[in-house]
Amino acid sequence: MHPESSAVPAQADLLPALHRMQARLGYIPDQAVAELARTCNVSRAEVEGVIGFYHDFRREPPGRRRLQVCCAESCQAMGADALAAHAQARLGVGLGETTADGGVTLEAVYCLGNCACSPAVMLDGRVHGRVDATRLDALLAEGHAA
Amino acid sequence: MSVRIFVPRDSSAASVGAAAVCRAIEDEAARRGLAVDLVRNGSRGLYWLEPFVEVEVSGQRIAYGPVTPDDVPGLFDAGWLEGGAHALFQGPSEAIPYLEKQTRLTFARMGLGDPLSFDDYRAGGGLAGLRRALDLAPADIVAEIDASGLRGRGGAGFPTAIKWRTVLNAGGGQKYIVCNADEGDSGTFSDRMLMEGDPYCLIEGMVIAGLAVGADTGYIYLRSEYPDAWEILENAIVIANREGLLGDDLLGSGKRFELNLFKGAGAYVCGEETSLLESIEGKRGLVRAKPPLPALQGLFGLPTVVNNVITLGSVPWILANGGAAYQAHGMNRSRGTLPFQLAGNLKCTGLVEAPFGVTLRELLYDYGGGSASGRPIRAVQVGGPLGAFVPAADFDLPLDYEAFTAAGATVGHGGIVAFDDTVDMARMARYAMHFCAVESCGKCTPCRVGSVRGVELLDAMLDARSGGANDDTLLRDLCQTMLEGSLCAMGGMTPYPVLSALNHYPEDFGLAPKREEKVA
Ligand SMILES: Cc1cc2nc3c(=O)[nH]c(=O)nc-3n(C[C@H](O)[C@H](O)[C@H](O)COP(=O)(O)O)c2cc1C
Ligand code: SF4
Q1: B440: Cβ below 6 Å to ligand 2?
Q2: Is A88 inside any structural domain?
């Protein structure tokens, strides 16, 4: 990955390693923290610090699906608050929570770069634009069938 | 003869169904025994018309949009392969006023071809800038950028040539070019468009920057919210290495440049350049105090150019056409063009590349077509979450760095988010403080603690505002402390949206309207 020509410290692989691990497992388990500390040549506290700093990384397993509702300004201008309220009511969880059956983790996200098609949500890594309550319900239902 | 049909692969077009439209076209063509050649292009940027489908008729592209899968059989019935009339017919793409009126320099190739086709890139004028740069001495490349008047498009508007010259003169060791592709501002998507729609343009710009300052290694710090851009860039880097745009022998010159992709992890503050560098180094994204400048002690402590995607993406055009041609556009000290992004409550949202000096009113009404809801536009936030709210009275303000600064606002990354008259400006002010509290890196007190106090103060004002006897003294004091005492613009500019909301919309806060005259 990194050019041999420059001395890149092992720590520079920490974020890529966390991303790889989370892509595989869905979260960063306890035993991984020690392992990452060793391979990246930093303390466990530093690994925890990094995990805690970045919104992407999770220390707990997420729901089977991940619904992120954009709550940033452009989507707010097009009704994101109502959409987020609808998502919470429908799933029966607050933002940042996972449904009791472990089905869906609901999160707020600040901008998906889809501001010209607001309001936007991301469901399992795919962006959807011009989403209203009906469309959101349909998206959640679609995934269940699949 | 198969007819060429263009359906964007851009993620925003995909978000409103472009892939399904593509499948519907394939199926319907097969059913009718017609030969069509589907090209997945970048977006033209007329997002309100996405999925925006173009049919090539006698060498001219005829547009239809917004197309849903259900429209497809009817479009065939209407003879769209010959450019037939239909309710979704938009005429020849190039003649649509929204596109025709623009000055597309950085976005010259946007949406024309398959973003990953290197032949399309070459045919569209790509590599001309790099060829020229390879014939120039490093200092002469910098001089060309200097002549263009190019300033950083990431928000701060710092002259690019000054930054490059500093790195060029920083000795002969390892140096880096870092592309800031963290694009966290709501209302902005031009970086994403360029990366998804013309990735070689960004790569070429980075290589030219490398030649200019003597850096042979680059990083693109891409936010994790852009998985499609990631995939396209990953592929583009492989192809660019094969084609000699990257690698050990740039276009046969013997010079080298290696490019790495680095994925962010959802922290807005990592768009701040020193926080970004910490992040690549595997650390928490704590903002560094300056000095030292990243230009002298940047990535891994070595001289580093950090530039925004659009800054770097403008470089190939400038080298190919000359700095003078670029600086011929614009006004005062804001030279060239900016790809403005029209977002929020507007009828015609999209990408508008125009010379500096265009007014907000032109962008909002001539291009934007007014609000999507049909209600009056009450406030416009320019420049992302750290940008001020501009009231209707100031819509004639020209988009110019200095004019905006003088008005207590910022051009930033050129994102323009419109709100209609249902907006609650006190809630927007609270959101600004809340966003700062969520995203603060925590290094300095005015930002870390101030933003939390700001949310509390605004909550109290929201509770009490129906009484109409609120007092904003404390909130204004707090804003002053954040403005003056923050280490970076996160805490230092969060007061912009808050104070502009207070100044222009006091009635929303339960304050007496007379406050408006107090601060302009
Ligand atoms: C909180 C914060 C967030 C920022 N986010 C971005 C960003 O997402 N993209 C960007 O290019 N610049 C961002 N900037 C500006 C960068 O610090 C820096 O000025 C820029 O990358 C320099 O490149 P330029 O000169 O080409 O604009 C941000 C600044 C701050 C304070
Ligand atoms: S202003 Fe905020 S984000 Fe910037 S350094 Fe201080 S705490 Fe960090």
Answers
A1: yes
A2: yes
Instruction: Indicate if the pLDDT at residue A25 is higher than 60.
Output: yes
Q: Which value, to the nearest 10 degrees, does the dihedral of the CA atoms of residues B294, B297, B302, B305 take? A: 20
Residues A76 and A136 in one domain: yes
**A13 and A71 co-located in one domain:** no
CB B336 within 8 A of CB B344: no
Quote the mean pLDDT of chain B. Answer: 96
**In the structure, what pLDDT confidence band is assigned to residue B287 with cuts at 50, 70 and 90?**
very high
- Indicate if A136 and A70 belong to the same structural domain: yes
Residue nearest to atom 2 of ligand 1 (CA): B272
CATH of the domain at A134: 3.40.30.10
The dihedral built from the CA positions of residue B434, A111, B224 and B107, taken in this order, carries a sign that is negative
B30 Cβ neighbours under 8 A, 6+ residues apart: none
Specify whether A48 is located in the same domain as A82: no
% of chain B with per-residue pLDDT over 70: 98
For residue A123, tell me if it sits in a domain: yes
CA triple B441-B444-B447, angle to 5 deg = 75
- Of the listed ligands, the closest to the CA of B488 is 2
Which tens digit of pLDDT belongs to each residue from B245-254?
A: 999 999 999 9
Which residue ranges form the domains of chain B, and what is each CATH number?
3-100 (3.40.30.10), 118-328 (3.40.50.11540), 331-420 (3.10.20.600), 425-509 (1.20.1440.230)
Look at A114 and B11 and tell me if their CB atoms are within 8 Å: yes
Q: Which two tokens stand for residue B318?
A: 């400038």
User: Inter-axis angle of helices B190-197 and B309-321, to 10 degrees?
Assistant: 60
- Any domain includes A25: yes
* Domain encompassing residue A94: 65-142
* Cβ contact, residue pair B349, A13, below 8 Å: no
- Sheet with strand B217-222: strands edge to edge: B258-263, B217-222, B176-181, B304-308
Number of structural domains (chain A) is 2
Pairing of strands A65-70, A104-109: parallel
- Are both A92 and A136 inside the same structural domain? yes
pTM recorded for the entire structure = 0.96
- Phi, psi for residue B45 in degrees, rounded to 5: 95, 5
Q: Is pLDDT above 60 for A5?
A: no
Q: Residues A70-119: pLDDT tens digits?
A: 999 999 999 999 999 999 999 999 999 999 999 999 999 999 999 999 99
Query: For chain B, how many helices (H) and strands (E)?
Result: 22, 16
A120 shares its domain with A73: yes
Q: Give the pLDDT confidence score for residue B402 in this predicted structure.
A: 96
Whether pLDDT at B481 is above 90: yes
The bound ligand whose nearest atom lies closest to the alpha carbon of B181 is 1
Which of A5, A15, A71 best probes binding to B when mutated, by most B CB atoms within 10 angstroms? A15
- C-alpha B383/C-alpha B496 separation (Å) is 10
A48 shares its domain with A83 = no
- Beta pairing class for B350-355 and B389-391: unpaired
Instruction: Find the mean pLDDT for residues B11-20.
Output: 97
- Of the ranges B59-73, B180-194, B387-401, B466-480, which one carries the lowest mean pLDDT score? B466-480
- What is the position in ligand 2's atom list of the atom closest to the CA of B482? 1
Q: What is the atom index within ligand 2 of the atom nearest the CA of B269?
A: 3
Residue of B208, B195, B125 lying closest to B161 (CA atoms): B208
Position A58 in a domain: no
Query: Where do the DSSP E strands lie in B319-429?
Result: 330-331, 334-335, 337-344, 350-355, 377-382, 389-391, 415-420
